[in-house]
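Record 1 of the preview.
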Amino acid sequence: MAYEIIVKTRFRKKVIKLLSYLEKEWGKAVADNLLKEIDRRCETLSRQPFTGSPVDETKNVRSIFLTKHNRVYYRIKGNVVEIIN
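->
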């Protein structure tokens, strides 16, 4: 059973800002690679949402590495994975 992925506005804004920075400083290819990695991680979370490490047990927040410099924080609610930060 695949979980539905919902991307929160805060996460979207941060990704846009990060991609803009990467494209400006490192080139379009680097920004595109990060975007592909985000998509790949979202696909993984859709199939295996409990792979991330618990961060805040009371709020059911978990995290996974995106790159060695970036983490994705998410919450599982029923059949939905909310990408929050």
